[in-house]
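Q: Predict the bound structure with zinc ion.
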Amino acid sequence: MEKHSLLSLFSSNPDKYYKVSLFDEKGFKRQSCKLCGKFFWAIKDRESCPEHDSYSFIGDPPTSKRLDFVNTWKELSSFFRKNDHEIIQRYPVVCRWREDLYYTIASIVDFQRVMNGKIVFEIPRNPLVVPQMCLRFNDIENVGITGRHYTSFCMVGQTCNADAPGGYWKDRCIELDHSLLTDVLGIKSEEITFVEDVWMGAGAFGYSLEYYVRGLELGNAVFTEFEGDENNYRILDNKIIDMGAGLERLSWITLGSPTSYDATFGPIFKKLIDIIGIDIDSKSEFLSRYFKKLSEIYSNYENDPRLLKINIAKELGLSYEDLEKIVLPVETLSIIADHTRTLLFAISDGSLPSNVGGGYNLRIILRRTLALLARLGWKLDLQDIMDLHIEYLKPMYPELKEHKNDVRKIMQIESERYSSSKERMYSIASSMRESKKKPSVEDLIRMYESDGITPDLLLETGVIEKIPPDFYVKLAELHTTHESIPVPVIEIGSDIKPTKLLYYEDESIREFDAKILKILKGKYLILDNTAFYPRGGGQEPDFGTIEGIKVTDVLKQNNLVLHKIQAPSKDLQDNKIVHGIVDNVRRLAITKNHSATHILNSAARNNLGSWIWQNSAFKDENYARLDITHHSALTKQEIKQIENTANEVVQRNLPININVFERSNAEEKYTFRIYQGGAVPSNHVRIVNIDGWDVEACGGTHVNKTGEIGLIKILKTERIQDGVVRLEFVSGNKALQYVQSQDSQLLHIAQSLGSSREKLIESFDKVTLENDQMKRKFRVLINRFSDNMATTVTHQATKSKSGLKVYGTFDDVMGDDYYIALGEKSINIDPFLVYVALVQDHERIKVIVFVGDESRKIIKASRIAKEISMKLGGTGGGGTDKFAQGGGKDKSKINECLKNLENLITNIDSSEKNG
Ligand SMILES: [Zn+2]
Ligand SMILES: [Zn+2]
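A: Predicted complex:
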């Protein structure tokens, strides 16, 4: 569906779609833009639509009130409350309820759930208003520069289901929004323009009215009325109003300040300016002119901020350099305020800076902030800035202070990580500068991805002169949405009744009768009901038998359970009643591991911090693992604490209650913490509640009380990727078996040491000490013994035709340390000596070759070592002219090698001369 064809569809019938009662009452006339052809509604006659206007409100606000960010919200929320709207709390900025998004990118996303590839709306109150913080990383390079772009912003969502109780439609919506602008903010109706537009997404679409005042778009009211496409559509049963207005902009227009950042971060700027000691106040009038000018010509230079500034400087009558001196500190301050606020919300809501997924963008903006501070030499503490945000935003977002310490901790770890890698980054940067090669955008992306080098750092070190405008866009594109994993699908064909899931009706059922509905490929059975749990949610499937035939896998496809049997059987046919038996031991072990996963996840969060989420989990019979989101590898102490906490929960024998809730009720009651295993694509969610400890949406099997698990033992932890730590564990009998096997291994060691379990550590330390002493003694002995033996070697060596003296030996007792010492000493005594020792080293024959000073003029040790190694079936040797080693495995060739040593060496000798 094309946007423009949809627009012409609606625009061809403006009275039906766009005209609202307010337009007639107040005298808004429909007009078309002479520049772009768009249709708009305004009281005054206008040549063009407001998209072409400059920001004439800068320095001249059209409102009667002057309101900063928080006070704008106070006015706005009380207005909507008075008009029968419920004001609800913001949703998390980390979008746990949608698999396709990392972050909440618009207020309407709060109420969207994806089911079968279609978006459904769940609006908890009707009508409502939400101050939703949204994160978007596609404009990073514009933040600070344009005066209006952000990585996080508050979208006030005025949302309503028109067909549910309390609902209203477009007349009332525009009437309210108009009243907000005029009655509350004091803007004259003549100042307001409504522009016609359309909206579409995920099978639904509608028309919209964007409203502007003095060039600034303040809000967009979307009326989602239809589903289908432009050729075939019908009216939705539940029509949705989604009006989104940027709170930053509403505040900005009341202040008429140079930038929207002044309105949003005013009190924070004041404090920071005091600390840095820069003067911005006296430049205020100039900055107003600058940003007004910028709004006029910005669209011409969207991709080249440098050229944009050069042109503004020309118009304002000063040099680019002088302009930059005034503007750069303002821009930088805005970037820092924006980026820290984004980090504050994201980390508070449980996202971690990392190299993967959504955490990627957080690390980018954090490192960018640190690099900017370094570039300007500002001594600002990021955590202090965050505290200023928390304090200022308290009336709107009191929850931010709850995770204050956790955010502080993460910021500290990330900042330290950055500074410790900085030295390496600077050395890479300086070698780049010397090479004088100009990196491309792709080079810059690669450097950031592999070495964490931000372009700001390259700018700081003079490797590049400017940051390519598309750098951050391209980088963000790589990390915006999840990749979906395709699931292999078995062709089922005709309609089959959904399988009745006995394991949800009664988890304790292990035997059942069922009718075969269909057999696929001879080995996949579909039954009318089943107690077999299919693979899903990280839980491995049940095994067992059907009519005595082994079931080796169970999987679920849509609402059918497929039982894979070991071999096709003629006893199994459609419509036959069969008897199924679920392997009880396996099911119990998996069930305990699954409940243990929930317990461990909360144990980790309680001990480590609020950023802990389940990243993924796997529950099998003999093994289970839980991957959690965490910034560092776990210490021994932390592992022990988590294990202790988890086992305390087991010992408290807490009841585990499983209930099915309507999704919106579950979210409201238990928050989005329930989505540890990801979003749930259905209207109803199964909530597994470990009383007073952990609540998750989960479709797995669970024990009735935590005490049934018996024991949880962590086997191993590992940092498997940046930001993710894996805990491998066992529970129940498997945990007991593990402890027992560890115990018997210890006993074996104790007995081998001639000690007891009680004295094991003591005995072990003693043996280690003795071993060290023995090695020292042995080294001394070798030294002394080889002194004496060296003379014997020189006497035993035989003289070859070419005048070299050759000595060869084989030994399977003394190690190579001895023969290396001996060889070195021997050639020191006799410079004509060629020394070859073959030493048995486990399965291998090691070759050790030394060549004396005089012989070396004729032959090299490395050549001899290579030649002998190859004779012994090895691939070659290596070393210097004087000393070389090699080896092979063919023991049968030892004697031959030693007997023909002289010949072998003479041959090499002559080939060296010839070659
Ligand atoms: Zn226009
Ligand atoms: Zn679960």
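A: The CA atoms of residues 674 and 851 lie 73 Å apart.
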